[in-house]
Every structure is written in structure tokens, then in C-alpha cells.
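Input (structure):
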């Protein structure tokens, strides 16, 4: 009887710890803009617990993997020349996506820390409503955004 009670307490403690760890990372903001008429830039701002290792980031459209920072996952073949995901200082995962199709497209940012459940956020991007990534809009999205854009611009050329 005493052993069963201890197992119950241990199970409860493990559940609380795992749930707390899994819910500790979260996607704070998902913003996007157009680098030119054809190319999309999407920034996924996330929050992590203090002193966490760098998480893995990936962008998906439904079941299709556009790109990821996880070397154990393979990018969906049609997107190898069109999509690139990178992590930048300030807890930002950026997607550069070439040749955005007309109409609406769903993009999901997934942030995963270790083996915990992923924190996700999805945005619907409508190409005709997409605003340009001007210096002003980049500065509004956060300090350093212009520098990060300039650093990633050669990837689209």
C-alpha cells in the first residue's frame, strides 16, 4: 500500500515536470513581409526558459516540411531550392521562401526544445495583401531586424 502511494506521487511529480517543460517554450509572434513581389520573409519570435539549449525550428505547410534547423529531419524535396529556415539571435526563427504562389498559403512555425512537444503558430499569408519588408516595417518588428534582413538577403539572390 505504501509503495503504491509512493508510485502515485512519483507519477504526479513526473507529469508536472514534463508538462511544465513541454509548455515552457512558446511562439510569441509570427510576422511576415515581402522581400520583393515573389519572395516571403517570415519571422517566428519564440520564448524559452532561462538557460535552455538552442531549440530546433521548422516551418511546415500541413504535412509538408518546408525547412528545418534539425539535421535529423529531411526537407521536402520540392522546397530544397525555395525555402530556408535559420535561427537568429533574439529567439527568432526566420523563413525565406522563394516564389510565393498566388492566393492564400498557410505557414506554421514549430519550435521544439529537446524531446518536448512543439510550440506552434500558424499564419495565413495572402500574396496580394503582403506588405514589403521596408526598413520602416522591419524596425517596427523589432530591433536588429534590418541587420538580419541584410544578412539573409544573399540567400535569395
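Output (sequence):
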Amino acid at each position: 500500500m505504501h509503495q503504491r502511494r509512493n508510485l502515485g506521487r512519483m507519477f504526479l511529480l513526473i507529469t508536472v515536470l514534463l508538462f511544465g517543460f513541454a509548455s515552457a517554450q512558446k511562439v510569441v509572434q509570427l510576422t511576415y513581409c515581402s522581400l520583393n513581389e515573389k519572395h516571403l520573409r517570415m519571422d517566428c519570435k519564440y520564448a524559452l526558459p532561462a538557460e535552455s539549449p538552442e531549440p530546433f525550428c521548422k516551418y511546415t505547410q500541413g504535412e509538408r516540411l518546408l525547412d528545418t534547423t534539425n539535421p535529423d529531419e529531411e526537407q521536402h524535396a520540392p522546397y530544397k531550392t525555395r525555402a530556408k529556415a535559420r535561427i537568429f539571435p533574439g529567439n527568432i526563427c526566420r523563413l525565406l521562401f522563394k516564389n510565393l504562389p498566388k492566393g492564400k498559403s498557410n505557414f506554421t512555425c514549430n519550435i521544439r526544445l529537446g524531446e518536448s512537444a512543439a510550440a506552434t503558430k500558424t499564419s495565413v499569408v495572402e500574396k496580394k495583401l503582403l506588405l514589403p519588408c521596408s526598413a520602416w516595417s522591419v524596425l517596427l518588428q523589432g530591433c536588429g531586424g534590418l541587420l538580419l534582413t541584410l544578412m539573409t538577403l544573399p540567400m535569395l539572390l
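Notes: Confidence is low (pLDDT under 50) at residues 5-22, 143-157. The longest strand covers residues 26-34.
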